[in-house]
Design brief:
The chain is of the alpha/beta class. The chain contains four helices and seven strands; from the N terminus they run H-E-E-H-E-E-H-E-E-H-E. Strands 1, 3, 5, 6 and 7 form a five-stranded mixed beta sheet that branches. A two-stranded antiparallel ribbon has the order 2-4. The termini are far apart.
C-alpha cells in the first residue's frame, strides 16, 4: 500500500461530462449552467394540510401508435393531463437517463399521483390540482425562463394550486 495521494478523480463530473457531450455534438460553445442570484422560490404561506399541490414533469404525453412502435416524440410546448387517473405510460425515450441500468416503466417514479392521493387521504395535503403539467426539455434557458415557466405558473394558478412539485426525469 502506498501513502501517496490519489492523482485522479474517483467520481464522474457531471459538468465535465456534459461539456464533452455538447462538444461531441458539434456545439461551438460549451453548455452554460443556469444560475440565479435570486432564487425564484418562496416559503409556504399556509400549512401543507391546507394546500393544493400541482405536479410538473419533464416526460411527454405517450398517445400515438407511432410512438408505441418506437417513433421519436418530443413535446415542444407545455402540456397538461388530468390527475384523476395516472397515465399508464408517458414518453421518456427522448430524455437523457441511463437506459442500460434502469427503465421508466414505473410512471409513479416521476409522476407520483398515487403517493399524493395517499397524502390527501391522510390530511397531509388538502388536495391535488385537477391537472399535472409537462415541460419540454430542449435545454434552452431563455425559453424556459421567458416562455415555459410563465405558462406553468399560469396553469397552476388556473388550477388553484398553492404548491408546485417539480419532478424531473
Amino acid at each position: 500500500m502506498s501513502n501517496s495521494p490519489i492523482t485522479h478523480r474517483s467520481f464522474i463530473s457531471y459538468i465535465d461530462r456534459t461539456r464533452r457531450f455538447y462538444r461531441a455534438q458539434g456545439y461551438d460553445r460549451p453548455y452554460r449552467w443556469a444560475h440565479h442570484a435570486d432564487v425564484p422560490f418562496t416559503e409556504l404561506v399556509k400549512p401543507l394540510g391546507e394546500s393544493r399541490v400541482a405536479i410538473v414533469t419533464t416526460a411527454s404525453p405517450f398517445d400515438s401508435v407511432e410512438e408505441r412502435e418506437g417513433g421519436r416524440h418530443e413535446s415542444k410546448s407545455v402540456w397538461s393531463g388530468e390527475t384523476q387517473t395516472t397515465p399508464d405510460r408517458l414518453y421518456t425515450d427522448d430524455l437523457a437517463w441511463d437506459k442500460e441500468s434502469t427503465h421508466t416503466n414505473d410512471v409513479e417514479s416521476f409522476l407520483p399521483l398515487s403517493a399524493l392521493r395517499s397524502l390527501q387521504k391522510e390530511g397531509r395535503i388538502k388536495s391535488i390540482a385537477p391537472r399535472f403539467h409537462g415541460v419540454p426539455t430542449d435545454y434552452s434557458q431563455r425559453r424556459t425562463i421567458e416562455q415555459d415557466a410563465p405558462e406553468i405558473v399560469a396553469r397552476c394558478i388556473d388550477d388553484g394550486a398553492d404548491i408546485a412539485l417539480l419532478v424531473p426525469l
